[in-house]
Input
Amino acid sequence: QQQVKQSPQSLIVQKGGISIINCAYENTAFDYFPWYQQFPGKGPALLIAIRPDVSEKKEGRFTISFNKSAKQFSLHIMDSQPGDSATYFCAATGNFNKFYFGSGTKLNVKP
Amino acid sequence: KAGVTQTPRYLIKTRGQQVTLSCSPISGHRSVSWYQQTPGQGLQFLFEYFSETQRNKGNFPGRFSGRQFSNSRSEMNVSTLELGDSALYLCASRRAGNTEAFFGQGTRLTVV
Output
């Protein structure tokens, strides 16, 4: 059973547009939800993370929206740039020893 | 500050062989986790070590094993390699009590 479901699988956005990636989870014991960015040939890099006691967290152009009752969270990339083209993974954990990852979204920002 | 270092970066092995991968965590980080990344299955948790003890294990066969040394460096071993073991193996380190996990660049294992 997939613990974290991510959509869409791929996304094409024009430069300056908003990229939105969605994730849903089932386990209510999860209490930490990070997003990772991965470039080809590199390991995932932590982008931004949120805990369920807040509904939104913003860091620069990146915002996480969190809906605890719906068990959903999303990543918004404002003013998307070609340099943002990468694969994005959402994740969830309840004990920090084991992360469950979404299947990834390949983002392509067109210049 | 040095990041998580994984060696080697690339490996080609033959079916039936065994392989050992190494991970050096960020200085001061005592937790090391291993993940397998494949196009079909995504990122899957293998195991996590803290202070030389395995604290958590994913749903992988016993051919996958690991250990951690007193300096927090970790190794994972895969015995009797199968074609399906071809993947990017990632390790992540974390400071005790901290939520942020930092990944290395991975070891790309190809089994032929």
Notes: Chain A touches chain B through 22 residues (CB under 8 Å). Residues 20 and 76 of chain A are 5 Å apart (CA to CA).
